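pls design
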């Protein structure tokens, strides 16, 4: 009962201390805030760009043109404000003198040669209207010649397809089913990056402040370290909620009102198996990296000494990204298999494969079991490193020495 109360006090102290710091909330809320702003700007930019493009193609201004192709409809050109000429040089001179705003020279074969456009400069962005009008006039003429807007659209390749695939007799999800489980990978990256230093310093802080001996006189090393790990889990869960809740609320109430170019948010599919497997992979991955960074901190006298090891651990998170094309297109490739079963690259690789539907259930079970089992082992090692190196202020703790001392202590206890 006393150990349980001590563990609860450690967890309560660490969680309250972290959550009461304004800088924690500033760092936690900064990323989702920036993501919301960037998303809003992207949507607004995509919509405004499309509106600007449509407006440019329908804008009216005076222009002259010469049609070597014979495809431009004179009536449509006249209605758009165009005047046909026979001498290209005359059209260019009229533009230079300001008599007309633009001159279009249509080649004999517009599919092989570009339309030459000469116009008065109105700025790099506004100048786009000239090419838009020149191309729109030729397209309208071709449509009028064909006599059918539908046939004209088909000739331009403006057709779409809707793909439905089946897996095990059921409709398989497309991109709409990839995005939801992919959010687990985003959460893993964000939480590890935000909390990495805190995980590392969880066991180094007392060493640097020279208070470890005082703490260990009132509480066991194992209780202290386990309490710190549990508190990191609680804090990590809070950060995940901070990121996940706005996404969930936005999807639940505003998905039909959000306009994302070329994608319908209301079509997202939340399939049970990928979501459950992804959640377990996320928890197991977070547990492994937390235990590893805590163990590294337990073996190092200062955060500065632990920094190179921290960098090495974090880099393993990004190794699978360099092979992402193989992970997506060739999940059976040897390098992908190696990344899937190596503990510190398995989190990202398995989460990617899970999202894209290339992670067999048997492999998912192996990865999840491996992550949780190795987390327990690493945490156990971290406890021994902290126990036997908690008062080592000048040099890192030897793993071999700590384990040797642990075995000797165990042996003496058995003799007693």
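designed seq:
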């Amino acid at each position: 009962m006393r150990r349980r109360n001590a563990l609860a006090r450690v967890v309560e102290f660490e969680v309250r201390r972290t959550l009461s710091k304004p800088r924690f909330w500033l760092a936690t809320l900064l990323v989702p805030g920036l993501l919301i702003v960037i998303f809003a700007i992207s949507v607004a930019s995509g919509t405004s760009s499309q509106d600007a493009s449509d407006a440019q193609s329908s804008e009216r201004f005076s222009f002259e043109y010469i049609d070597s192709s014979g495809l431009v409809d004179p009536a449509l050109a006249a209605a758009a404000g165009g005047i046909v000429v026979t001498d290209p040089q005359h059209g260019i001179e009229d533009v230079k003198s300001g008599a007309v705003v633009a001159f279009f020279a249509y080649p004999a074969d517009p599919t092989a040669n570009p339309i030459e456009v000469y116009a008065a400069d109105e700025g790099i962005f506004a100048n786009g209207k000239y090419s838009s009008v020149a191309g729109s006039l030729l397209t309208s003429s071709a449509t009028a010649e064909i006599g059918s807007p539908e046939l004209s659209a088909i000739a331009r390749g403006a057709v779409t397809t809707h793909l439905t695939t089946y897996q095990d007799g059921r409709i398989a999800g497309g991109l709409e089913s990839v995005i939801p489980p992919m959010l687990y990978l985003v959460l893993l990256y964000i939480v590890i990056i935000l909390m990495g230093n805190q995980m590392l310093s969880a066991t180094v802080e007392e060493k640097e402040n020279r208070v470890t001996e005082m703490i260990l006189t009132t509480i066991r090393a194992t209780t202290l370290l386990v309490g710190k790990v549990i508190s990191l889990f609680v804090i990590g869960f809070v950060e995940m909620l901070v990121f996940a809740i706005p996404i969930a609320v936005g999807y639940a109430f505003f998905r039909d009102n959000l306009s994302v170019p070329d994608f319908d948010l209301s079509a997202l599919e939340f399939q049970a198996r990928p979501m459950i497997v992804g959640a377990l992979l996320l928890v197991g991955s977070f547990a492994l990296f937390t235990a590893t960074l805590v163990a590294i901190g337990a073996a190092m006298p200062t955060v500065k000494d632990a920094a190179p090891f921290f960098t090495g651990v974090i880099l393993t998170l990004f190794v699978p990204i360099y092979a992402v094309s193989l992970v997506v297109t060739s999940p059976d490739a040897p390098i992908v298999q190696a990344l899937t079963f190596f503990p510190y690259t398995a989190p990202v690789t398995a989460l990617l494969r899970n999202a894209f539907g290339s992670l067999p259930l048997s492999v998912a079970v192996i990865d999840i079991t491996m992550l949780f089992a190795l987390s327990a082992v690493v945490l156990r090692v971290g406890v021994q490193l902290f126990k036997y190196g908690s008062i080592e202020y000048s040099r890192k703790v030897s793993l071999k020495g700590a384990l040797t001392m642990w075995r000797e202590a165990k042996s003496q206890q058995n003799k007693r």
